[in-house]
Amino acid sequence: MPGNTFGNIFKLTTFGESHGKAIGGIIDGCPSGIKIDKKKINYELNRRKPGQSEIVSPRQEKDKVEILSGIYNKKTTGTPIGFIVYNKDTKSKDYKNIKNIYRPSHADFTYYKKYKIRDYRGGGRSSARETVCRVIAGSIAKQILNNINIYAYVSSINDIKIKNTYDKIKVKNIEKNIIRCPDKNVAIEMINLIKKIQKKGDTIGGVITCVIKNTPIGLGEPIFNKLHAELGKAMLSINAVKGFEYGSGFKCTKMKGSEHNDVYIKDNKTKTNYSGGIQGGISNGMDIYFNVAFKPVSTIKKTQYSLNKKNEKVKFKIKGRHDPCVLPRAVPIVEAMTALVILDYFLLNKIYK
Amino acid sequence: MPGNTFGNIFKLTTFGESHGKAIGGIIDGCPSGIKIDKKKINYELNRRKPGQSEIVSPRQEKDKVEILSGIYNKKTTGTPIGFIVYNKDTKSKDYKNIKNIYRPSHADFTYYKKYKIRDYRGGGRSSARETVCRVIAGSIAKQILNNINIYAYVSSINDIKIKNTYDKIKVKNIEKNIIRCPDKNVAIEMINLIKKIQKKGDTIGGVITCVIKNTPIGLGEPIFNKLHAELGKAMLSINAVKGFEYGSGFKCTKMKGSEHNDVYIKDNKTKTNYSGGIQGGISNGMDIYFNVAFKPVSTIKKTQYSLNKKNEKVKFKIKGRHDPCVLPRAVPIVEAMTALVILDYFLLNKIYK
Amino acid sequence: MPGNTFGNIFKLTTFGESHGKAIGGIIDGCPSGIKIDKKKINYELNRRKPGQSEIVSPRQEKDKVEILSGIYNKKTTGTPIGFIVYNKDTKSKDYKNIKNIYRPSHADFTYYKKYKIRDYRGGGRSSARETVCRVIAGSIAKQILNNINIYAYVSSINDIKIKNTYDKIKVKNIEKNIIRCPDKNVAIEMINLIKKIQKKGDTIGGVITCVIKNTPIGLGEPIFNKLHAELGKAMLSINAVKGFEYGSGFKCTKMKGSEHNDVYIKDNKTKTNYSGGIQGGISNGMDIYFNVAFKPVSTIKKTQYSLNKKNEKVKFKIKGRHDPCVLPRAVPIVEAMTALVILDYFLLNKIYK
Amino acid sequence: MPGNTFGNIFKLTTFGESHGKAIGGIIDGCPSGIKIDKKKINYELNRRKPGQSEIVSPRQEKDKVEILSGIYNKKTTGTPIGFIVYNKDTKSKDYKNIKNIYRPSHADFTYYKKYKIRDYRGGGRSSARETVCRVIAGSIAKQILNNINIYAYVSSINDIKIKNTYDKIKVKNIEKNIIRCPDKNVAIEMINLIKKIQKKGDTIGGVITCVIKNTPIGLGEPIFNKLHAELGKAMLSINAVKGFEYGSGFKCTKMKGSEHNDVYIKDNKTKTNYSGGIQGGISNGMDIYFNVAFKPVSTIKKTQYSLNKKNEKVKFKIKGRHDPCVLPRAVPIVEAMTALVILDYFLLNKIYK
Fold this sequence. Notes:
CATH superfamily of chain A: Chorismate synthase AroC
Oligomer: homotetramer
Largest interface: A-B, 106 and 106 residues
Number of helices of chain A: 7
Mean pLDDT of chain A: 94
Largest sheet of chain A: 5 strands, antiparallel
Number of strands of chain A: 16
CATH class of chain A: Alpha Beta
């Protein structure tokens, strides 16, 4: 009921504030006997970390996960996996001047009103720093799901948009540029735009597309826990996300039934895949794909106005090292949350066998 | 874990197939001492029912809820509320010819593969008939939340779109036409389009917008159970929904941070409301609003092709009485699911007081 | 969180008051394709029903279950099983004189204080009438678990106690007498004692022993959801239960480790079975057995004293048709709750395979 | 669903093996703004720790909790409380000789069969070392429940039994002796018996009684989550527990209804309290009390026989530093689990206000 656990069978619970001693988590329900490679976890953490390129926050978090339990001789034992990442580069003093200010479109106001207390240092629990734990758990999930292929990429930044549909892009190109867009030329345009915005102290949003290949038929628990409903919740739980659509998404509203229906052809494939691999909330074996909308980061470097705790109007400027665009670092987070959902529903589906 | 329960504290569990004896549900966790008016439940059921106008299915389901427990002398007792609706107008024979066919973009294939059994009569559990139970529970939730105002309306059908934003529409106009669009002229256009499509045996989709006014500050349980994440899951669990966006939604991706940030002005209000009333996953007291995309109904009256259980190609035509457009009947369903989420999170939030 | 759901995967949610229109429930998470025999459900209901013999309440509840969904052509479909039992022989007027009185050792006082409302008719939700739903769901669970053998019996009434340990009794004798004690002579003594007590308008308690044979190795989810912890909770949730012990139980406190340790001998059996078939919270394949203590029924026919809602001292006598001893009718309830736990943990354990 | 989480609102999830790097946990759902005194946590850890007296294991675990999040300026913030205790005095080599042996009445066999993997070092996850985390969370719960008084004590060791009932003992005497029995003379007898048993390399069991004073009226969630059912589950989840009884417990089976009924007298008190403060699963404001049976520790220092993984008969002797009797160290664990249940149900009950 409280909100820091995700999943039903493969269950992640996390803790930690951006400027506290450490962040970490516990994975419960992990099947036993599975080999876990820590290098793969660190690879994912590096895809998420700040300081990785010129278009993200220059903060240097050399995040290294320490696994405390549940893995013995490199294999999962079936007992809970405890893990921890100590916070290092935490310049709390950057936040002193905004201690009593409700930053626009941040969670300062709502956390304070809900909990009547405020850990002003870097957003505390509401900081995207917590996504480190999602990435760690997601990497473990990915290693268990090794036959199911999950990848995400940046498909648009502001008005700059990739032309190819999800099934036409070159997956191996995703990691070849710092924006994580598989179309080289579009990527260059995106990077240039971000740099321009960054110089002005402003920020910008975009869309991440995620694809799941080789999902077994049968994942999803209707009627309330439909597979896409859980994927939607997982994505909407990520900081800065404002929208989710799967398959034909919002575009479906402009199509007729006779165009939109996916006709079954041989081998239980469908001719088109507007359904996005899910029908009636259950995977049908076709590719699953969905889009996630990310807003422009709320932390801008321009002078802003707001209220403080005393309800007084204030003028202020945020210091610190922030991202002009969250998208490139959000790609592994989208993949991680996807892996958590798919593994959870994969394990749940074993019950029916 | 199995998927037929929604909610944490105010918890709805439902049962029933479209062509079985009855459908129904149990609400657990309902606070005691609250007056429930059955007429209000029936009002909502009438908004949902088929046969209500010329642009929906002509099927006549005179759904009347029977409450079996949990309400005594018209007041809730704190014990579970059991309710039942008997199925009446169920022409199972309409479905005989498609008994072994996987209808395109329906759940026939996935249910059969998951459960190895098929109740072919009218989609069985995957039929939207189950939403009757959502509407009943939602109406009870609405009666408990009487200070919080929830209303939805059709904001687009295919390319026809309402011009006003959510805060400019006239709420009292919503129920004045059969499409449930608050703009009279746009409503006429929408209705005409649906009639045209209907004549061709085809179907069409659109967008429903939902607004919540007077939400108390503090609802939402970060980091995984953010208020909008739960609303998104609730909406995505409704039949035919393909997308969800709240506040600025997908449009946020085209804005800069300096434009998108909602500046706090006096009395803890914000000047703009791109955040859609939710920051960091917690309600901030401003209006909550979101869009839900509905696909064109999969059941069309045209000749279609598909596979049957033996993997043979088949040509078929669906009989029966179906909706050319699900939107007008989906309005009360969107409101019901919204009420379930808001009440659940309202009760959860009491714990912090 | 609210209390009317039991189980994790095979999940029973129930509703209904003793004197309302109906009681019923929903089973979610039932595997598909399993044949369910309604006669077996009615057999269990008959073992529970009042009026079955001279030593139980003469009330005549001809309980017949109506299954509303989830079973098609006699087989489970994987969708939720809704069921209902209409209340018939409900003499509410029997309760008028105690409308405002807190009956001693009943739940009148606590329900009223918690929910601020009282459905005085027959105890409302706190009545053991709700166990009808447990027996129905338990019978379905038993049919799914057909290789696992669950049986319970009365092992003591007051001071009269069966001599044989659980592994020496004759299972087929249990149903041969109205008290459900497998030792014929002890049964006669018990019956005579109950009759004597009944004549005085008093009531009496006892112990039910339950045995589970052929449990697969590996059921149980440490560290908090140990198999015996869940069995304990299941038993303690039954009306009138005051204690639970498994394996050596309270007697273990009088033994030394060297006596109590169960030594593994060939074929993974243990020489003794003080562990009661569970070690570290996980079944080890040996017989599981446990005892459940039932208090003397609170409803006696003698003149009693108590307070009423106004805090005034009152003298009163309870009318109606009540049980002098709940044990014979509780045997199928103990079995039902056991079956629910075992099936739930059996399904959970599939995840590790 | 997996078993390493306890509680619904105030939710503890733990990780850690006895001989891994660390053990720890996350408390989610802790109300904000509550002052937490770390000294009180350490006080409870010291009551649990080995090496505290001559009648417990001489192992020296200087357990000190490190709190990593959720507490800021000594007050809870409403965000999850992460905590960790590093393992220090872990002599894994003590376990090498039993690496492949199923120790009698331990969890070696069942964990191995369930998870197909064995961390043989000191029992791994099944070791009572995990109770450190229960004690830490329990101490935090106690500090939140500061008006509700929870205390436990040793009421019997083998045949030596305290004479006074729970309401007659002197609470302040409990901590005055190393066995934690409030009757000085009985304590001496108990201690002498344990020493005698210890010399023989054997072990011994007993009963712990727990009392809760000043519980508000209304805690408990019928029908399945009755307060005593949850307390029972909590106790049965503790290592070595074989039985639970509350109020009159198993003795109720020897009483008549007319003796056992608790008559309400003025101020909503009852004359007797056989109900143990709970009626219909809901607290009635009277003292709650219950007994918990602990078996003799399975680790004895005598030569034993068993099977190894190859199903061969083996003769072996366990080395290491173990408890002859777990009772004195289990007292704070019983209190901790009680505090977790009471706080959880206290928070749940707020929903009804």
